[in-house]
Automatic annotation (TrEMBL):
Family: Belongs to the glycosyl hydrolase 13 family.
A single BP term in Gene Ontology: oligosaccharide catabolic process
Keyword Hydrolase: yes
Protein name, UniProt field: Alpha-glucosidase
Gene Ontology molecular-function annotations: alpha-amylase activity
SMART domains in UniProt: Aamy
Gene3D superfamilies the record matches: Glycosidases, Golgi alpha-mannosidase II, Oligo-1,6-glucosidase, Domain 2
Residue ranges of domain Glycosyl hydrolase family 13 catalytic in the record: 25-411
Coiled coil: none
UniProtKB keywords: Glycosidase, Hydrolase
Keyword Cell membrane in record: no
Phylogenetic classification of the source organism: Bacteria, Pseudomonadati, Pseudomonadota, Alphaproteobacteria, Rhodospirillales
Length: 544
């Protein structure tokens, strides 16, 4: 299967900076605490941008830092145009952007356009009565004759997606927490207000947006019941799992709104970047709809790997083949870990295999066609942390304990200094505990070790920058068996053969026996029969 893609050019003839970019995700609460209150902040991020730049990434993505009651840790925004005091000030944000740009790092921030906090001024006005200027800025609906909610929609975090408000004597929709009322993005005035928010941050120098949960931004205005989700024998921990969500989200008018967003970003010079977060069983269709052509979003953030229990050659092939080179098809973005998913090294490898597996996974990620996202700590091969119930912060984890362990284990503090209090994250007890094994993986300890995972990460990101075939080249799968993955990346006159052994035993391949080695992990051995890769070995060869 071949996935060739023409070189797309931006202003001046060069390809856009974001096509094939490596982007580093920062979760501000857990990156670095500059004021020692136990929570990470913007000045803490700025102090450590040199570390991020040294990895060789092209951009950072900041999870929400906006004013918020923090019921969902920043994804419940009460003021889209300000920084929550927990994280600093607008001046701190401006300083962060300035320093990032000095280091040639682009800055991407989250934008949450599907909902707000119930403390947002817009909602406070909207809920007063049915005639105020913002009465239809949110999704309101009358009760059924028996007083029950307008339809059967369920929220992601558990329970009905409707809450009664006595002032309006109506229900309001919230696809997430009760404290996160859904905006009525069907309303063009609401769209205008959101586009003004985008301009506010673009004027401050940001280089792009990740659009959070954008497929939840529009609903069926008729409030039709969702159909039943057929029983797949999977464990269902929430009422949400019992439905197919064709009515409360994924409305066909969403792409029209995305075209308006793209128009705003293009008006700032054409080099701004947009990536959609799209989850759910219909994600592939929606991602392609949201990125089709040249008037919608630049990319979509694919979840194929983030919630996979195991990493297999077949999964890699299936995910990548969903994004072939076809006219008008968008450009994918890949991540193995993020703030919502358990860290990949703990999901995909047994404890005794994690070090070797993490090295293979790093080399694999940089060889994929599309943009790649590294989550903070992934350059250290950080493991998932087990959080005891009494220390949980994640509302979903608390509500569904113990069947849903939640997101806290991937959000623990970044370890900077081995042996320091809280591994150098903060001098006071942090909002989540530092992982028991993370002190030994701290940045300063790995910085001094040329064979560390940190050193490997820098090397393989440099590899991607040095080879256009890896950044933007075509892709052809050679093999994707039970344990063996082999594919070619090609651009211009260069062809690279990428080989990976996912299995527990050694594997020998005659392919590329005499080709020059570009990079490897796990110490593959060359012999008369070809290359032998040990378990979790990886090899990139260059066709002469």
């Amino acid at each position: 299967m071949t996935m060739e893609h023409p070189t797309h050019t931006g202003p001046g003839g060069a390809r856009p900076w974001w096509r094939g970019a490596a982007i580093y995700q920062i979760y501000p609460r857990s990156f670095a605490d500059a004021n020692n209150d136990g929570v990470g902040d913007l000045p803490g991020i700025t102090r450590h941008l040199d570390h991020v730049a040294s990895l060789g990434v092209d951009a950072i993505w900041l999870s929400p830092f906006f004013t918020s009651p923090m019921r969902d840790f920043g994804y419940d925004v009460s003021d889209f145009r300000d920084v929550d005091p927990l994280f600093g000030t607008l001046a701190d944000f401006d300083a962060l952007v300035a320093r990032a740009h000095e280091l040639n790092l682009k800055v991407i921030i989250d934008q949450v356009y599907s909902h707000t906090s119930d403390q947002h001024a817009w909602f406070q006005e909207s809920r007063q009565d049915r005639t105020n200027p913002k009465a239809d800025w949110y999704v309101w609906a009358d009760a059924k004759p028996d007083g029950s909610p307008p339809c059967n929609w369920q929220s992601v975090f558990g329970g009905p997606a409707w809450t009664w408000d006595a002032r309006r004597r109506q229900y309001y929709l919230h696809n997430f927490l009760t404290e996160q009322p859904d905006l009525n993005v069907h309303n063009p005035v609401v769209q205008d207000a959101l586009l003004d928010v985008a301009r506010f941050w673009l004027d401050r120098g940001v280089d792009g947006f990740r659009l959070d949960a954008i497929n939840f931004s529009m609903h069926d205005p008729a409030f039709t019941d969702n159909p039943v989700n057929p029983d797949t024998h999977a464990v269902r921990t929430r009422p949400f799992d019992f439905q197919l969500h064709s009515k409360n989200m994924s409305h066909p008018d969403i792409p029209k709104f995305l075209e308006r967003i793209r128009g705003v970003l293009d008006s700032y010079g054409g080099d701004r970047f947009t990536v959609a977060e799209v989850g759910g069983p219909d994600a592939d269709r929606e991602m392609k709809a949201f990125t089709a052509g040249n008037a919608r979003l630049n990319s979509a953030y694919d979840f194929s790997f983030l919630y996979a229990d195991t990493l297999t050659p077949a999964l890699v092939r299936k995910a990548l083949e969903l994004w072939p080179d076809e006219p008008g098809l968008g450009w994918p973005s890949w991540a193995f870990s993020n703030h919502d998913a358990p860290r990949c090294v703990s999901r995909w490898a047994k404890p005794q295999d994690r070090a070797a597996f993490a090295r293979m996974a790093a080399l694999l990620l940089v060889t994929l066609r599309g943009n790649i996202f590294f989550y903070q700590g992934e350059e250290l091969a950080l493991t998932q942390v087990s959080i005891p119930f009494e220390q949980l912060q994640d509302p979903e984890a608390i509500a569904n304990w113990p069947l849903t362990l939640g997101r806290d284990g991937a959000r623990t503090p970044m370890p900077w200094t081995s042996g320091a209090p809280n591994a150098g994250f903060s001098t006071v007890q942090p909002w989540l505990p530092v992982g028991a094994d993370h002190d030994a993986m701290a940045v300063d300890r790995q910085q001094a070790d040329p064979h560390s995972h940190l050193a490997l990460t820098r090397r393989v990101l440099g590899l991607r920058k040095a080879h256009e075939a890896l950044a933007v080249g075509g892709m052809r799968f050679v093999e994707a068996g039970q344990h063996v993955l082999a594919f070619e990346r090609s651009h211009g006159d260069e062809t690279l053969l990428c080989l990976f052994n996912f299995g527990p035993g050694a594997w020998t391949t005659p392919e590329g026996a005499n080709w020059p080695v570009v990079d490897s992990v796990g110490e593959p051995q060359s012999g008369t029969q070809g290359w032998t890769l040990p378990p979790f070995g990886g090899l990139v060869l260059s066709r002469p």
